[in-house]
Amino acid sequence: MLYAFLCYNNEATVYSWTKEEDDAVMAKLDVVHQKLVKEGRFGPALRLMPTTTGATLHKEKDLVLDGPYAETKEALLGFYVIDCDNLDHALSIARELAAANPGGAYEVRPVRLFLPGEPGVGVT
Amino acid sequence: MTDVDWIGAALAAARPQSVAALLRYFRDLDTAEEAFQEASLRALKTWPRTGPPRDPAAWLIFVGRNVAIDSVRKRARQEPLPEEALISDLEDAEAGIAESIDHGHYSDDVLRLLFVCCHPELPATQQIALALRVVSGLSVKQIARAFLVGEAAMEQRITRAKRRIAAADVPFEAPGAAERATRLAAVAAMIYLVFNEGYSASGGEASARAPLCEEAIRFARLLLRLFPAEPEIMGLLALLVLQHARAAARFDANGSLVLLDDQDRARWDRTKIAEGLALIDKAMRHRRRGPYQIQAAIAALHARAAKPADTDWAQIDLLYAALEELQPSPVVTLNRAVAVSKVRGPEAALAMVEPLGTRLAGYFHFHGLRGALLQTLGRDREAHDAFSRAIALANSPAEAAHIRMHLDRLMQESDATTADKAAK
Asked: Label partner for B99 (CA 20 to 30 A): which of A115, B1, B105, B363?
């Protein structure tokens, strides 16, 4: 069974790390990543850019607000990774999706780091 | 990271919001700072045992407020301080309480704290020093090092700034829309100043002052998180990260400045560039142009060019024209002339530069650019004069060395032409 792991943390704290501290955390994570890659368990993984780079499309009102989705009543039900030209393009794709599936919101956020991964393929 | 590292990072990140809320509560900068300091000491004792609280700022505000009130009471009634356990046991409850009290005010609190630091009565250097001390929490020693002055002198500068602010009226009421915009603009200007203090350094100073760039970026991030729909704040953060992305390529092994055209673009920080491009793209959607957005858009065009020849100078020319309209200044026109020289040739650029002569007579870059344009046009004698003027006005050995290189080339060329003529 594939599991998605959703990473939450205090953004102000993480962006207070120096480059050295950030690199150190990433290096430690990479040890875990590599182990999972070897076992053929590692699927796509991504690190998002800060919330300030994103925007949220509220589907019902067709309203775009800058910043992250802040409501807590709705639950995260899924996500896409789509190659977009820019934020406008991303929002127009979000609108297409919204027309097919109304209710709730899409938060669109540029991806900072993308590790494609390949579950089911181990390195021996 | 060790315990102390993550606590340090969490305290640094929570500081602006915490000190800002405590300032609203106590209406006194020193009391707010002391209360935060005391709360941080308790965090250092408590957090390794309990783990990090879910909302570090809420914890610090709550504890800071209690200890400050207690110390007032203690002074008044000589009562003992409450047991440490009483405070640390409250953790779950306190986060909720502090949150309900403080989250509504939180954006305006932090804006007020930053705004207090850029009080118009304070000279720029004091504004910056105060913001670094109060908002970033840098030590006086760290700030002194960044400004290349002694610790005692910096201590005095900060004390003087605080005294001025205490004497001035700090606006504690929640600001209206117009007032909020005024405060945002003043704070943005201060953040840009902090960045430039770090960015304009060169040689041995550069590494000492680099933290100023990092702090400015932290301020801009903080501000944008609080006011996520302000295109000029997006523009400001975009501008700062795009400029800072070039940091590793801006100096050679000797610490001399490397000009944009000569920089090794492989050393530009791609993560920062990607963030800057995403931010400027987002800002432009608002169709409310402003100086930071335009400057960021210019920086973005440089960042997008894989090599100098790929630079979209025509677009840069248009952006400088827009900037000239919004913020007319001879320096902006001078920058535009660089783009014009690439798009329409040196003659057009020189025509744009010449009228600036009286206002920029003492400006290094004016004579440097004028010299280069004259040289391209074959007016060697005038170019020579302009370069000599530029060298006399250089702000750093690197700038002087760069112009001297032009001069040497000019001399070699004219020697070669003379030799040519002699041979014929």
From this structure: B1
Q: What angle do CA B193, A87, B270 make, to 5 degrees?
A: 55
Q: State whether A17 and B271 contact (CB < 8 Å).
A: no
Q: Which residues contact A84 (CB under 8 A, 6 or more apart)?
A: A90, A93, A108
Q: Is the CA virtual torsion B22, B27, B33, B39 positive or negative?
A: negative
* The CA-based dihedral angle spanning residues A46, A50, A55, A56, taken in that order and rounded to the nearest 10 degrees: 70
CB-based contact, A92 to chain B, within 8 Å: no
Top residue of A13, A29, A108 to mutate, by most chain B CBs within 10 Å, is A13
Chain B nearest CA to A26, separation (Å): 11
Nearest CA in chain B to A12: B13
- CA of A15 vs chain B CAs: smallest distance (Å): 8
Quickly count: other Cβ atoms within 10 Å of residue B7's Cβ: 19
Reported as half-sphere exposure (CB side, CA atoms, 13 A), residue B147 has a value of 27
| Token couple for B256 | 């001399």
Contacts of B69-74 spanning 24+ positions with Cβ under 8 A: B71/B38
Query: Do residues B276 and B296 make contact, with C-beta atoms less than 8 angstroms apart?
Result: yes
Q: Note whether B220 and A52 are within 8 A (CB).
A: no
> B222 and chain A: CB distance < 8 Å anywhere?
yes
- Closest alpha carbon within chain B to A21: B1
CA distance B11 to chain A (A): 8
Q: What value of ipTM does the predicted structure carry?
A: 0.89
Q: What is chain B's pLDDT, residue by residue, as a tens digit (424 residues)? A: 566 678 888 898 899 999 999 998 888 888 999 999 999 999 999 998 888 788 889 999 999 999 888 777 766 655 555 544 444 444 444 444 454 444 557 788 888 899 888 888 888 888 889 999 999 888 899 888 888 889 999 999 999 998 888 887 777 777 888 888 888 999 999 999 899 888 877 666 777 788 889 999 999 999 999 899 999 999 999 999 999 999 999 988 877 778 888 999 999 999 999 999 999 999 999 999 999 999 999 999 999 999 999 999 999 999 999 999 999 999 999 999 999 999 999 999 999 999 999 999 999 999 999 999 999 999 999 999 999 999 999 877 777 888 888 888 888 876 766 666 566 5
CB distance B411 to B392 below 8 Å? no
Can you give the length of chain A in residues? 124
Question: B236-255 as b/e, with b when 16 or more CB fall inside 10 Å?
Answer: bbbbbbbbbbbbebbbeeee
- The token pair that represents B70 in the structure block: 């207690």
The token pair at A38 is 């070897």
Phi then psi dihedrals of residue A58, to 5 deg: -85, 115
Stated pTM of the model = 0.86
